[in-house]
Amino acid sequence: MLRCMTQSPTPREIIEALVAIPTVSRDSNLACIEFIRDHLARHGVASTLVESDDGRKANLFATVGPMVEGGVVLSGHTDVVPVDDQDWDTDPFQVVEKEARLYGRGTCDMKSFYAIALALLPEMQNLKRPIHFALSYDEEVGCLGAPALIEALTAAVPAPEAVIVGEPTMMRVVKAHKSIFRFHTRVTGHEAHSSQPHRGVSAVMVAGRLINWMHERQRRCAFEARPACTFEPPHASLHCGVVQGGTATNIMAHHCEFDSDFRSLPGEDARTYFEELQAFAREVVEPEMQAIAPDTGIEFRVDACVPAFEAEEDEAAVALVKRLTGQNDLESVSYGAEAGQFQQAGHSVVMCGPGSIDQAHQPNEYISLDQVEAGTAFTRRLIDYLS
Ligand SMILES: [Zn+2]
Hints:
Shape: elongated
Strand order of the largest sheet: 1-2-6-3-7-15
CATH superfamily of the largest domain: Zn peptidases
Bound molecules: zinc ion
Strand content: 15-25%
Number of strands: 16
Order of helices and strands: HHEEEEEHEHEEEHEEHEEHEHEEH
Radius of gyration: 23 Å
Distance between the termini: 36 Å
C-alpha cells in the first residue's frame, strides 16, 4: 500500500514513496508509473504511457509548462537492479536515514533525480519553456524501454533544447558513455567419455576457447589504447559474466551456455568485436567440432545493443548544464545509459544527476542528503532558467 501523501510532498517524501514501490527490472513497473501519473495529475499535468508489448511495463512522458520549443527533457529510468544475494543491513525497499544518508534500492540509481523534480512541480507554475519528464522501464537490462519512449516523445513534443539524463554523476557534467552489447552463446557438443576426446566435443571446453578469445581480444584493446582517452579503462571491455554447462567431470559436455557483455568507446562499435568472435567461431572452432561430430555447433543471440554517447564540448545540453552546475570539467563514464539513444534520435544530451555510481547496484545503496540538496538546487536553477 502506498502511503497517503500530503498535497506538496518534499523530495525526500517522494524518494521514500518511490523506493517503497519495488521495480526490479524483471517485475512490472506499473505501480510506480501509476504513482507518478497520479502525482502529476494532482498538479494538472497529463501523462502519456508507452507500454511494453506484453503490457506488464510502461514508459511515461509528460510535459509541464507550455507546449513550445526549447524545453528540457529530464530523463530517468524507473527500474532498479535486484537485491538477491546481497547482504543489506536494512530493508532495501524502505528508505532508512543514517549518518546523513538515505539508504534504499534506487535511492542513487536513480529515483532521487526525478523524485526531486516531481516534488518541485508547485514551483514550475511560471515556465515559459517546458520541462518534459521521460521515464523508462528496463534500463538496467539493456535500455530496452527507451527506444519506444524516445520515439513517442520526439514525435509528440516541440523540439527541446536539451536532454538531461539524471544518472548518478555526483552532479558532475558527463559528456560521454560507452556502448553496451549483450549476447547469449549456446554451444552444442557431442557426449563421450572424458578419456576419449577424439570421439566427442566438449561444449564446456569450446565455451572456454570462446571466452578466452574475449580475454585475449580485450588485452589487445588495452595494448592499443590511446593515452589521451578519458575513459577508465581507456579501451573496450569484453566480458563473460555467466556460464552454465556440463553434466559430470568425466563426460564431455553436451551443452554449455554463457552470457557476455562488450562495452566499446564512442567512435567504435561493440558489434565489430562480436562479429570478430563470430568469425572465429564459424571459421576456426566449428569446423574442428564438426570434423568430430556434425551435430555440434555454436549459436549466438543478441540480447541488447545500446549505442555509445559522446557530446560536443560546446553543444546546447553541455553548455546549459555547465552553466547550471557552475562546472567546466567534462567527464566520461564507462557504464552505459540512455544518453546515446537520445542522441541517435537527434537530441542534444548530457548526463548529470545526484548520487555516486559507486553506490549504484551495491548492497546498502544510498544517496547522501547533500546530494539530494545539490540535486534540488540544480533543478531549481533549471526552473529559473526556463521561467
Ligand atoms: Zn541507472
